Structures are given as C-alpha cells and as structure tokens.
Amino acid sequence: LLLEEIRLLRHHTSKDMKVVIEFLLSTGVRVSELCNLSIRDVDFEKREVKVIGKGDKQRVVPFSRACADLLSAYILDRNGALFIRKKGRRMTPNSVYFQIRKLGEEVLGRRIHPHLFRHTFATVLIDEGLSIIEVQTLLGHASVATTSIYTHPTERIKERYDAAIDKIM
Length: 169
Hints:
The chain has 9 helices and 3 strands; from the N terminus they run αααβββαααααα. The chain has helices at residues 3-11, 15-27, 31-36, 65-75, 93-108, 115-127, 132-139, 144-147, 155-166; strands at residues 42-43, 48-52, 58-62.
C-alpha cells in the first residue's frame, strides 16, 4: 500500500475498522493472529502484544503509540476478545477480509486484502533500516527466506544504494 492510500483508508473508515487497520499496520500480524487475540494479550504499558503464530509459536510484537491510543479507546472496559463484531462476537478472518476488501473498493477504487498491511509493515521497516532478521522476528517467520520477499528494491533502498555506491565510484 502507498502512504497516500493509507491516509485515505484512515480518513474514510469506521472507528472499529480504523483500529483494525492501525493494528495491522503497527504490528504486521496475520489476520488470523489478529482475530485470535484477547485483551489479556495486550500490555499497554510496554506497548506490546503477545501473538500466537503458525505452529503455535509465541512472539511479542510492539505497537505504536497512536495504535495504543485507538486500541484503549476501542476496548474501554470490556473483557475477552480484542477485536469484536457489532454483535459482540470475535471477528473472524473472513469478516476482516470482507470489510477490508469492501473498504478498498469504496475508498481506493481497487480490491485490497489484509495481507497488504503485513507487506507494508515489513517493507517500511526494512526501508527504515531494520535488519531482515529483526523483521523476520517481528513477522514470526521460521525462515529468513520467507522474509526476503519484502526486500525488493524500493525508492528508499535505491536512494540509499546510490548514496553508498557513490562513495566507492
């Protein structure tokens, strides 16, 4: 997702979906991981969330201050599932997928899916200088080869490359 697209999505969405979008962007979790989270998994003081990923592997992922503010207002005093639907039941991957696809069509004029937020998360972190190993840890990938799909040359990488290579030319 482009930064301008993210701004548009943030501006033209419901309060509940804004929290979901911010959480996906801030943590890079899979949609299935998001839907399985409970309030007890969130540590607001440390701004971390305990995530159970593929193969029942647990990892701790930080989230942004902006996400923490939205999340604390979203959950108020309730217990149980972190992300719920209007009827109070836990969100499902299908419900999140459908809502994000619909939002993309309405706001961006194209279909998008929740995994794009994971890609955006990883690409931005790599662009900003986190190592592929650090991003691998945050994403919960078993293999660095899986994480390497996020290392395609972006404009920021190309700029950093040009600046570095100019030093030896």
